[in-house]
Amino acid sequence: MATKMQLTNPSAATDNCRYCLMCRHICPVGHVTNLETLTPHGWGLTIASVERGLTTWNTDTVGVLYHCADCGACRSSCVTDQPLPDAIAAARSTVVAQGLAPAGVYRAGELLARWGNPYGLAQPPAAAEKGEVALFVGDDAYCARPGLVDAVVKLLDAIGIAPILVGRGRNNGYLASSLGFPETARQLAQATLDEVVATGARRLLVLTPGDLYTFRQLYDERLGLAWPAHVELVDVTVLLADALAADKLVFTPAATTDAYAYLDPTHTVRAPERADAPRRLAAAVLPGDSKELFWRRERTHPSGATALLYTLPHMAMLLAQDRLGDARKSGATLLVTEAPGDLALYERLAPAQGLRVQGLYELLASQLR
Length: 369
Known about the structure:
alpha/beta; Rossmann fold; 3 domains; 18 helices
């Protein structure tokens, strides 16, 4: 697959962001830590100070650098579209190359380079079938939540779509890029591009906004890889919501009447246009009152299911707990979302807050009429 020049200059973002506070209020890490250093301008100032020779990459500055969740919230609220997350990822690649990154970064990098995922599980062979529609499975769904994939296949079958499953057990490249391994990220991305092209698919269905962002933006801006122009990216929730509106999908309402809240997945800020679709789907099966979180849609905070899981897992847990606290304040007792990484964190932590969590795809499949 041909490469193309990156369209952004991430190094310039550190200079532009280091004394700007306009996105400080939306940063999830700053929100849960209340530390000025751990906000977008703090990261910009740290990187710029190293580049100017005012400090060096050491235990403290590297620790600051790896606290960023790479969730995209800062850029999503920036009126000048500064690619600060890209600059942070570029700085991390420098730290990795110098052997200064935390030990967990190198462990995750080794797993990604060897297995294509951080789970240490072998990937199945690339898809041998050909067809018009493919579905990217990825590593979180394949390795940790295979029932989610089964549910999606069942829902797609109900509207006459039998997709070719691609990327089974393979990270989409985001995690390697975020950790500071751009070459590993490029290899994972190229493997996905090659597999998709080999299937002859004209549409690639994706399960999460994280996949959507990675394929349509990160490949270009961070890795210099062009997405094939003939392959349309389609969010599964949007496809299913359109089928629901056209009466191609019919659901039996669930027995519960609990008030519920839909939790926008991590990276929704990078694909906010798809936020209505999962809400319409949830409303079709849940008769209880629908509640909304404060941190939703274009200002969604991540669950912590980012590179933080492998660098600062306690910070990932803090972010997930903060999301659950926001949900509890809304008055909901049932939480619904679809990203497998998010679900894994919420299911682990929700019972302690008196909350129940349900995967959207599994819920829909169970109520399919």
